[in-house]
Amino acid sequence: NAGVTQTPKFRVLKTGQSMTLLCAQDMNHEYMYWYRQDPGMGLRLIHYSVGEGTTAKGEVPDGYNVSRLKKQNFLLGLESAAPSQTSVYFCATWPRTASRYQETQYFGPGTRLLVL
Amino acid sequence: GNSVTQMEGPVTLSEEAFLTINCTYTATGYPSLFWYVQYPGEGLQLLLKATKADDKGSNKGFEATYRKETTSFHLEKGSVQVSDSAVYFCALSEKGSTLGRLYFGRGTQLTVWP
Questions:
Q1: Which residues 64-103 of B are in CB contact (within 8 Å) with A?
Q2: Where are the beta strands (DSSP E) in chain B?
Q3: pLDDT at A21
Q4: Cα separations (Å) of B95 from A103, B18, B24, B48, B101?
Q5: CB neighbours of B50 closer than 8 A, spacing ≥ 6?
Q6: What band does A100 get if pLDDT is binned at 50, 70 and 90?
Q7: DSSP, res A5
Q8: Mutate to test the interface with A, among B23, B44, B73 (most CBs of A within 10 A)
Q9: Interatomic CA distance for residues B16 and A88, integer angstroms
Q10: pLDDT at B7 (0 to 100)
Q11: Which residues contact B10 (CB under 8 A, 6 or more apart)?
C-alpha cells in the first residue's frame, strides 16, 4: 500500500500561472483534505471532501479550487498563483467507519510550492 | 470555537535531557487529542493520541495525558535523542463532528544536540 501520495513534490511558479496538485490514496477513505503549512501557523484547512463528487470550503479557501471526480483522487487547483500561496501543501485522508473517532488522519508527504 | 495553543519554540536540548512541550486547547465539544511529529522533509505522522479524560497516550518514549480540568495535553519524554529532532504539532478533533476536521497548534521545533 502506498497510502497517500502527492504529486509533484516541488514546483516553482511565476505569478499568474496555474497548476494542479494531485493527491491520491489507496486506502478507500471517504474523507480527504487539503491543508497548507506556513511557518509559525501550523496547518490550515483549505478545502475538504466527504465523498466522491462533493467538496466544501475550509478555513482558507480563497484562490484555490478543488475537485473529487474519483474517490481515490483529490485535486487542488491554483488558477492564478500569487506569492502569498508560497507554502507547503499537505493532503490527508480519514476513514468513514463506525470507530472513526478513534482514527486519525493520514497525511501525504507534502508538495512544496514557490511562487515568484 | 476550537483552537490549540502550543508553547513557542524553538526548543533546543542536549541528548538525554527531559522534554516538555506544553499544549492547551479550547473546544466546543469533547475532543480527541493528538500529537503529530514532522521530521525534516517529511509529512506529518501520528505520534500519540488520547480520546477521553485521564487517558495517557504513549509511543516511542513520548507520553501525554488528557487533562480535562486544565484543558491540557502536554508532551513529555524523559530522555531525548538526536533522532527526536523534528517539529511537533498538537491537534484536536471534535468527536461529535462528522467532518473529522483537525485543529492544529502552530508547531514546536525541537533540536537535540549530541
A1: 89, 93, 95, 98-102
A2: 3-6, 11-14, 19-21, 23-26, 31-38, 44-50, 56-59, 62-65, 75-77, 86-94, 103-104, 108-113
A3: 97
A4: 11, 32, 17, 17, 10
A5: B32, B33, B56, B57, B64, B65, B66, B73
A6: low
A7: E
A8: B44
A9: 32
A10: 84
A11: B108, B109, B110, B111
pLDDT value for A49 = 94
A104/B106 CB distance under 8 A: no
Least confident of A59-68, A76-85, B23-32, B92-101: B92-101
Residue B78 grid cell: 524523559
Instruction: Say which DSSP state A99 is in.
Output: T
pLDDT digits 0-9 by tens, B36-68: 999 988 888 999 999 889 999 999 999 999 999
For residues B99, A33, A86 and B88, what is the CA-based torsion angle, rounded to 10 degrees?
A: 70
Q: Measure the CA–CA gap between A15 and A80, rounded to whole angstroms.
A: 7
> What are the φ/ψ torsions at residue B4 (nearest 5 degrees)?
-130, 135
C-alpha cell read off for B10: 524553538
Beta strand pairing status for B108-113 and B11-14? parallel
